[in-house]
Amino acid sequence: MSRDRFERRLFAVLRPLVIVFLFLITAFPFLYMVMLSVRDIQELILEPGSLWPRDLTLDTYVDVLTRQGFLTFLGNSTIVAVSSVAVTLLVSIPGAYAVARLRFFGRRQVHFLFLAVYLFPAIVLAIPLFVLLTMLGLRGSLAGLILVYIAQTVPVTVYMLRNYFETVPQSVEEAAAIDGCTRLSTIWRVVLPLSRPALMATGLYAFMIAWNEFLFALLFLVERRESWTVSLGLSQLAGSIEVPTTVLMAGSVVLTLPIVIVFFAGERLLTAGLTAGAEKG
Question: Can you say how many angstroms the Cα of residue 189 is from the centroid of all Cα atoms in its chain?
Fold first, then answer.
């Protein structure tokens, strides 16, 4: 048997085994969390090592969504995440296009200045932002939190979209200009339809940050329970000794499930968007 045939057969056997192994490692924690969330607390106490519940119950989800207030938290997180994504893309698209296509003084410096924002850890920005939002009267409001998330996501989304816009052929834009399109109409009619994978990847990135972020939500919203996000509400469940483990796991599923749904719904566009801009020519 030649070396090439041996390697092909070896990889043909190892490939599915490695895929199954990695899938089990990544999926088992989520599966265990779901199984705990549908178990009765008395059964869990009597059989803590059992994975599969004898009787399924959804009382934990009723408890989380009603008595623990997660319906309100879900609404707040949805408002914050969707608003952050919409405004971030609205600002990032023209900014990334300008950096990719227009020639102006300090273009390269501006490009790297966006990335320099991420050299500072979030805790360094927490106190200045806290003071600023307090002076503006936005502490404790969802609007103030949305502004913070937009400031966090715009620099990296500009960088991501700029790399993709540079791969769009300029000849396509020149043809649109010959047909009478202005710069803005060219972006709307030509560039954006070609950039849907990159927009999906960028939008999902901004959505995940706004949905999962905890530090700034704790800092700005802890005084007003009615404005809490899901991550903040879940942390309060984890810190309470009166909340059963099953209810805590149900809250974790409620926090995780929207991200999983959004990810798989846009998986095809997301995969193309993450590799966009990796090559030129």
Answer: 27
Distance separating alpha carbons of residues 87 and 98, to the nearest angstrom? 17
CA distance 71 to 63: 11
Q: How many CB atoms lie within 10 A of CB 212?
A: 16
Neighbour count for residue 201 (Cβ, 10 Å)? 23
**Closest residue by Cα to residue 90 from 249, 206, 215:** 206
Measured CA to CA in angstroms, residue 102 lies from 96, 194, 221 at distances of: 10, 19, 40
- pTM for the model stands at 0.81
Q: Is 279 left (phi over 0), alpha (psi -120 to 50) or beta?
A: beta
Asked if 257 and 77 count as a contact pair (C-beta separation under 8 A), the reply is no
Best CA proximity match to 114, nearest among 95, 93, 130: 95
With the C-alpha atoms ordered 171, 173, 176, 178, is the resulting torsion angle positive or negative? negative
Per-residue pLDDT tens for 38-85? 888 887 877 777 777 777 888 889 888 888 888 999 999 999 999 999
153 closest CA partner among 228, 105, 216: 216
User: pLDDT tens for residues 222-239?
Assistant: 888 888 999 988 888 877
Taking the C-alpha atoms of residue 271 and residue 264, their distance in angstroms, rounded to an integer, is 11
